[in-house]
C-alpha cells in the first residue's frame, strides 16, 4: 500500500494514561473509501486510538500521519478542515438552537469575522437531513432526548464535510431504525470518497456496514481484516470472553452473543 | 437567519441606550446645567464653572462608567463561556480580589497619598500577579476545574491579605479610607483615571473579543473544540489575560463593583441565541448601560453621603440574580 493513499495512519504508537499502558505499539491505517470499525471491550483503548488519530492524544512513542505528514506539524486550523472528530457521549453546554449547534461544524471553513456564506447553509442543511434532525432545527440543544442529541452532534461532525471522519460510538443510544440510518449515512459518505473510522459495540451492525474491522484488546491490535476474518469464534472468546452465534446471510454477517465463557 | 437579526437589533437597542444614558449622566448632578444653552450655543455655554463641571467632572465620570461597565460585562461573558458556567465572573478566578488588594496596599502604605497613580497601578499590578500565580498553580495544560480551584485559592488568599492590611491599619481613618474605596465608586474621578484605564481596557477587550468563535466551539467540549481547529492554550491565555487587563484596570480606577459581570451576560444570553461568542459584544454594551444607569442612580437617590456605586449594583444585582435563578428553575426544572 502506498503511503499517499492513506488518509491517516498510526505508526507504532504507544500511549500511557496515569502510568497504565492504554495503547502498546499499535499500527493503524485508513484510506479513502474505507469504513473501518474499531471494536473491542470496554477499556481496550478504542477512544484513545481515535483521539490519537485526531491528533488530540499525547503519544509516548510513535507517530500519527495525516495525509502522509506528521499530524503534530499541522496548524490546528488546517487539521480541522481535513478531519472531523465526534467525541463519545458529547453534549452541548448551552441551550443553543439545534441549527446553530450543527453550524459549529462550519467554523473551520470560515474566516474569523466573516458572515456565513450560502455554501455553509447548504452543508448544514445536508448534514441535518442526513441524520434526520431537520425538524429539530429550532429546539434548544439541551432539551433533546439522548438519541436526538447524538444525531444532532453527528450532524455537526458531518457538516465539516472533511476527507476523514472519526466517530466515537455514533450509534450508542439510538433506536434500531436510527442505528441503521446512521450507518447508511456513513456508508454513503464513504462511497462518495471519504474515509470513516467508527467505534462501535454492535457486532452485527459493524460486520454488515464496515469494509474492515480492527479489534483491540489489552492495548494491542488483535485483528485487522475484513469482518468475516475478524469476527471469528476464537477472537470473540479471547477478546470479549463470549460465545456467539455466527452466520452468513444474504444481508451480511450476523453475530448474536449467546453466553459468557 | 433570525438569530443574527435579533443580535443586530439588540446591538442597536443597547447602543442607543448607552448613548441616551451617557447624555443623562452628563446632565445629572448637584448643579443643574443650563441644557438649552449647551445645545444652542455650545461655544459659549455660560460660565467657566459650567464648562469645568461638564468637561472635567461629569465627562470623565460618564466615560469611566462606560469603560468599566463594558470591561466587567465583557469579561463576565468571556469567563462564563470559557468555564461553561453561568455563575462565573471575574471574581471567581480571583482577579477582582487581587486587584483590590493591590490598590488597598497602595492606600495603606501611603503611596496613594503622595503619588496620584499609585492606587490604580497597585490594582493593575495585583491583577497581573494573580494571573501569573494562577498560571503557576494550574500549569500550562490546566483543565478548567484546576483553573477554578486555583482561582478560588488566589481569591481567598487575596481576601485574607486585604483583611490583614485592615487589621494592621494604624488608625480608624485609614481603615475608613480603605473600606470606602473597596465599596467601589466613580465619584471625583478625572481624565487622569480615564487615560490610565482606557488603554488596558481597550486592549483587554480586543483580546477577549477574538475568542468568540473558540468559545462557540467550546460549547461542545474541549476535544470537539480542538478538533474544530481551536487551540485551548491560546484560548485560555486570551480569556485570562484579557480579563486581567479589563478587570485589573476597572478595579484600579473604580474599586470593586460586583454583579455586573454576573448579571449582564445572564440577562442577554437569550438575545444572543445562547451563543457564547455572540454574547461577548452584547455584554460589553449591556455592562456599559447598566453602570451608567447605576451611576446616575447614586446621584439621584437622596442621601446624606452619596451612595457608593458598588453598593448599589450589589443591592440591585443580588436580589435580581436570585429572581433570575428562581424564574429559570420554574421554566426548566
Question: Can you lay out the helices and strands and say which pair or pack?
Answer:
The complex is a heterodimer of chains A (261) and B (333).
Chain A: E1 6-17, E2 20-31, E3 35-39, H1 46-53, E4 61-66, E5 69-70, H2 76-82, E6 83-86, H3 98-103, H4 118-130, H5 146-159, E7 164-168, H6 176-191, E8 195-199, H7 203-209, E9 212-217, E10 220-225, H8 227-230, H9 233-239, E11 242-249, E12 252-260
Parallel strand pairs in A: 3-8, 3-9, 6-7, 7-8
Antiparallel strand pairs in A: 1-2, 1-4, 4-5, 9-10, 11-12
Chain B: H1 2-27, H2 35-40, H3 48-83, H4 95-108, H5 111-114, H6 118-138, H7 144-168, H8 172-183, H9 191-209, H10 212-218, H11 222-227, H12 232-254, H13 260-268, H14 276-300, H15 309-331
General description of the model:
The complex is a heterodimer of chains A (261) and B (333). By secondary structure, chain A is an alpha/beta fold. Chain A has nine helices and twelve strands. A six-stranded mixed beta sheet of chain A has the order 6-7-8-3-9-10, with helices on both faces. Chain A has a four-stranded antiparallel beta sheet with strand order 2-1-4-5, with helices on one face. In chain A, strand 4 and strand 5 form a beta hairpin. Chain A is globular. With 333 residues, chain B is mainly alpha-helical. In chain B, 77% of the residues lie in helices and 0% in strands. Chain B has helices at residues 2-27, 35-40, 48-83, 95-108, 111-114, 118-138, 144-168, 172-183, 191-209, 212-218, 222-227, 232-254, 260-268, 276-300, 309-331. Chain B is globular and about 60 Å long. Chain B starts with a helix and ends with a helix. The model of chain B has no long low-confidence stretch (mean pLDDT 85). Chains A and B meet through helix 2 and strand 6 of A and helix 10 and helix 11 of B.
Q: What would a concise description of this structure say?
A:
Helix content of chain A is 31%, strand content 31%.
